[in-house]
Automatic annotation (TrEMBL):
Extent of Basic and acidic residues compositional bias: 249-261
Stretch list, region Disordered: 237-261
Organism expressing this protein natively: Nonomuraea aridisoli
Protein name: Uncharacterized protein
Length: 261
């Protein structure tokens, strides 16, 4: 992803499609950004999707390392989202049962890949994980981030101050610190089920078992995600620092289309 972002200053990479031969990087581009040079291949159907043969992927790349989580699979690829790019909040809305399952699955992946203590999961995210209340979850993540200077994650079943099932609001700027329902400042990042206040990356869960990232072409079948992760969560490689080789996350670690019922 950093390799795609380095094409031009106006490029932000946020998602990945992964198969044994190619890596597809989903990008958001500022106006006037030129087409990427060879060996990049621009998708015929969507110019926001750039392909690279696996052999052309640079193993070392300076800069912020993406933190990829699986959302599911499409017909040919594992579909991944970078939770360190874009807004600090990822909100999963839509069909409630699937939304909660996706949030729990993302929490499990983060917890498996990040250092101990980097992820705090609140009560209500997972039936078998009691967890602290939302306020304590956010306070714990904030304290850890301020103490270590590295990103920490708070995973919540609902946004503080927004009743569960509420439509919420989507202003173009974040809620001021200290106001009702305010979100902690970066480097705390948040994954939440349901409505939020403030800027967020919206993942929509649908009744057919698919999810999509609102406003982007990224879409995946998420029905098999919890079961697939349960069988391979311990095999996920740890997240690596920006100056280390690529994080080793490959399609063999992740759910495939074959696992989808």
């Amino acid at each position: 992803m950093a390799q795609a972002a380095a094409v031009a200053s106006g490029v932000m990479a946020y998602g990945v499609l992964l198969d044994p031969e190619y890596v597809g990087v989903l990008v958001a581009c500022a106006p006037g950004v030129p087409r990427p040079p060879s060996p990049w291949i621009v998708d015929d159907d969507d110019p926001r999707l750039w392909w690279l043969e696996r052999g052309d992927v640079t193993p070392y790349f300076m800069g912020p390392a993406p933190l990829l989580v699986a959302l599911g699979a499409d017909e040919e690829h594992v579909v991944l989202l970078d939770v360190l790019s874009g807004p600090v909040t990822v909100a999963v809305q839509g069909e409630p049962r699937l939304a909660r399952a996706v949030v729990a699955s993302v929490a499990a992946q983060l917890d498996a890949r990040l250092p101990m203590g980097a992820v705090t999961v609140a009560a209500g995210v997972h039936d078998r994980h009691p967890g602290p209340d939302q306020a304590t979850t956010i306070a714990t993540a904030r304290h850890r981030a301020l103490t270590t200077g590295t990103p920490s994650f708070a995973v919540c079943a609902a946004f503080p101050g927004v009743p569960e099932g509420s439509a919420g609001s989507w202003p173009t700027a974040g809620v001021p610190e200290g106001s009702a329902g305010s979100w902690p400042a970066a480097p705390v990042r948040v994954v939440v089920s349901g409505a939020v206040r403030g800027t967020a990356r919206l993942v929509v869960a649908h009744a057919d078992g698919t999810v999509n990232v609102h406003g982007t072409p990224l879409r995946a079948d998420a029905r098999a995600l919890p079961r697939a992760l349960a069988s391979m969560i311990r095999a996920l490689p740890p997240y690596r620092t920006p100056d280390a080789p690529n994080d080793g996350l490959t399609e063999r670690h992740l759910p495939t289309r074959d696992a989808t019922p």
